[in-house]
Specification:
The complex is a heterodimer of chains A (about 625) and B (about 260). Helices cover about 40% and strands about 15% of the residues of chain A. With about 625 residues, chain A is an alpha/beta fold. In chain A, strand 17 and strand 18 form a beta hairpin. Chain A starts with 5 loop residues before the first helix and ends with a strand. In chain B, the strands form 3 sheets. In chain B, strands 2-1-5-3-4 form a 5-stranded mixed β-sheet, sandwiched between helices. Chain B has a 4-stranded antiparallel β-sheet with strand order 8-9-10-11. The chains are: A alpha/beta (about 625), B alpha+beta (about 260). Chains A and B meet through helix 19, helix 20 and helix 21 of A and strand 4 and helix 2 of B.
Amino acid sequence: MQISNVKELNKIKKECLATQKEHPKKVLVCCGTGCIANGALKIVDSVRDGLAKRKLKDVSVEILKETGCHGFCELGPLVIIEPQETFYTKVKPKHVDDILDKSFLKNEVIEPLLFTNPIDGSKITKYNDISFFKHQQRIALRNLGKIAPHEIREYIGVDGYQALAKVLFKMSPDEIVDEISNSGLRGRGGGGFSTGRKWKICKNIKADKHYVICNGDEGDPGAFMDRSIMEGDPHGVLEGMMIAAYAIGAKEGYIYVREEYPLAVRHLEKAILDCERSGLLGENILGSDFSFTIKIARGAGAFVCGESSALMKSVAGEVGEPRAKYIRSVVKGLYDQPTVLNNVETLVNVPTIIRNGADWYKSIGTPKSTGTKVFSLVGKVRNTGLIEVPMGITLREIIYDIGGGILDDRPFKAVQTGGPSGGCIPEAMLDLPVDFDSLTEVGSMMGSGGLIVMDDKTCMVDVAKYFLAFLVEESCGKCTPCREGLYQLHKLLEKICAGKGEMSDIEKMERLSENVIIGSLCGLGKSGPNPLMSTLKYFKDEYIAHIKDKKCPAGVCPELITYKILDNCTGCMACIPACGYDAITGKKKEIHVIAQDKCTKCGACYAVCNFEAILVS
Amino acid sequence: MIHITINGKVVQAQEGEMLLTVIRREQIDIPTLCHHEAVEPSGACRLCMVEITKPEWDGWCDYVTSCLYPAADGLIVNTHAPKVNELRSSILDLYLARHPKSPEIRQLAAEYGVLKTQFEEIVDGNNCILCGICTRICDTMGFHAISMVGRGHGKEVAPPLNMAPEACVGCLSCAKNCPTNYIEYNMSNGRLTIWEKDFEMIACKECGKTTVTKEFAEYLSKNRDIPYDYFEKCDECHRKELATTMGRISNWDREARS
């Protein structure tokens, strides 16, 4: 397949649309990493075999689509029947015959496989009627779950590379930069810097070479926005990079992606290869004078390599250590040349902005944070997964409308945004609009889009300790405040969680945090104390309970809690074998006893007791 | 030439020159642990941080590492602002917790009023402060025999795969420039051992004292145009030879004049 001019591109698009019209009936199987882990590839095989058995082998390519991630990973493998939009969850190979015979061929609905509304137990048939999807607005995720990401034709069929054609023949580099600036697009990797301004600074610097790098080094625990985009819409990322490259005058680009994302690497490699073969990458793209190549740089998974200067060192083959950025990387970046580094989500937004215009993009979101943001909503909410919402939506809407509220109807305690460098936001601020500036104002940050919801069973001191431990592990170790300071902050938190804290430790932590923030070299250290500072700000009473009363109010810190069996114990003996340390004794129909000297506070007995007879205090 | 203000005094500087150079030229004492004039600054120890501002910043100020911050016209620098002093003692406190046995760290910390750390001491630690002077010097020399390995609190200086480094020529630049004298080496019986690599040293033809390793002499003769046989004589014997030559020349002079 050769695409050497716009005419050929449009011809392929027409062919794709014609095929779609001819075969409106489809079976979409989600093949994102989450669903694959749940067995989606077996479903794909079964559907393929099933279609062959039903004499549909010749058209199985048109019917069966292995799509990218829908975001509702916990319910995978997901299967969608088009055009009815019937949404099946937790599909197993044994269900496939039924799905094909009843749902695909006869438009019937298989009720047991439908999504169950966790609030009222009702069954919901259509994808877009589920509250998890209903309240979303998908721009960055526009193609995820809709097209087969490894097929370039599929992308072309959904207006793929039309934005590239538009910029190459109808826009000057200055006009592109202005359009992106006008759209108000801000860096989705966390910094929130104006993308248009970044491009403009880089473009105006005279140099031998300019580079475009896509930052796919997503490292926040529980975050998978960029991974899903790279897996589910690799061509969207490539097109965004091509537009950026044309705007700033770059001939070479890199995608930095971690080796732990094998599927993303595979899909990107395939997409690059398809582009090179068809002429969408290489010399004189679409017959213009624009030439561009993209290489994949694989990272070894160090969190700090998501930081711009460390990432560029890693791409160049050096140790991924940040450098001081008194001279910015847009001026002196990769190989000391001006470099635009954009996050995956930022780049995938670019083609739609070019196609639909800055005004359209600006109409979504808030005046200062335009457009949408992808979040990975995880933790103690009913619906977890990948979501995309307009900026300015409140945390309450995300957690209660999309997330379906707190698991088991427990009280909400806090939501952690911005990954390890972000902060915890308490209930009083649930109506806070989610945008770059509001989150920063309350001591957290947008970050790359992690949202971890916590209920009353979460200990905030323990949460701070967890994130500090992560950062101690992931600090590159170059500068002293980050390497030694975060280590000591973590030690102090360990001390408090073990019931050995003193009131003076709080002041000590506050002072040290301030010095780590001022003194550290890069963003990792400068924002490292955030989880501690924000929990200390909003949940100070929990710290005091740990220190003064030697109690963990949430019942989490092992040194500060005890497990006791209450009088309502029925003597069912379920907890006795559950205890791995032989700490529980008792006879049938008699109240059991936990030997405190043997109890390790693992919580295994609590988990098996059906009579709420075990008290954690 | 540009003008910057350091601690209230207007001084001249070159555009783009690093602040630390200007500060030290003005004989103002600020501590550093990772700075070495022979190598590129890295900004690792953070002790040279200073407070900077400009009249147009409306009272806002920033804290930057002076070793990496280029001087700019009109910049107002305070090398000992209260916040800077606090930051320095906090960093030295952290160093003291990590390296309680290092005499160099103890002395510097004491100068900033930190006699005992308020943090948890690491008792079984070593005296490597991870300043990176050794690795940067090795890189600058062109050997790349040692580098920083690992990350975070477990970071260390080591040769590749922790094996005797092939690229090491035994020049001793790392050990001789280590601010805490941490890098060990052994020189005896005409041999040198460093980074677990064993070298044969050249013996002085005159007195038998060792000069440099054969590998280092080969490197210098090949890359720096110093004749190999120069290293076959020790510094002292070179000096003796020079004195003898000078004496002879004086004698010829006298004889010629008389």
